[in-house]
Amino acid sequence: MQDNTQPAQGAAQEASPTPGQPAAAASAATGPVATPAATQEQVAQAVGRDFGSYDKDGDGRLDATEFAAWMGALRKAAEPNFQPGSAEAATWANQAFASADTDKSASVNKQELTVFLTPKQPG
């Protein structure tokens, strides 16, 4: 049984998402280290569970600020030395947002986020 009381930052545990190489989302954590999700279905479950925590205005989409907050929390969980408020973090978050916003609507919906966070299979 999943522990859904974990904070949203448990949604991913791999290195930072960058355009073309998004982080893998993780299934619900039962301890300090989450198991990375390997399939789009697992990522979709994590996104569905945690999306509302970051969609502050409840419109069903993440704007750049909401997206940056979530991705910053995920990267901080994976890289404790990461500084979410730094200039480097802002540049990184903007690049990640541009990559995730595939329809160029200036927002990221659940489907776009799921695709962005799903590990890419080599080959």
UniProtKB/TrEMBL annotation:
GO molecular function, one term: calcium ion binding
Biased composition (Low complexity): 15-40
Annotated region (Disordered), positions in chain: 1-42
SUPFAM superfamilies from the UniProt entry: EF-hand (SSF47473)
InterPro entries named among the record's database cross-references: EF-hand-dom_pair, EF_Hand_1_Ca_BS, EF_hand_dom
Organism: Sphingomonas leidyi
PROSITE patterns: EF_HAND_1 (PS00018), EF_HAND_2 (PS50222)
Domain EF-hand: 42-77, 88-123
SMART domains given in the database record: EFh (SM00054)
Protein name: Ca2+-binding EF-hand superfamily protein
Coiled-coil regions, chain positions: none
